[in-house]
Amino acid sequence: xxxxxxxxxxxxxxxxxxxxxxxxxxxxxxxxxxxxxxxxxxxxxxxxxxxxxxxxxxxxxxxxxxxxxxxxxxxxxxxxxxxxxxxxxxxxxxxxxxxxxxxxxxxxxxxxxxxx
Length: 116
Fold this sequence. Notes:
Helix 2 packs antiparallel against helix 5. The longest helix has 33 residues.
């Protein structure tokens, strides 16, 4: 029963305008060569920074500046902005969904009626 309801909820979320917009933004992101280059740089530098910090080292100023500049350029690009806005909208949707689920769980704990 729970699995069926969860699958139905997933289907409904997949049909939500917010999720559909995110899918389109993700496709535009994949199709944009410049955005992909920026994301690869951001990802590479993030991994390097994580490794350095795990070893107790600080990132070099030049690499930190490269990261900041690349991230800024990505965020300011039309494709990057579209992706970030639609991602935030889906995150808000999922926060609302999770809150409603949590509310339902709380009601379920206090309810004397068992519905399976």
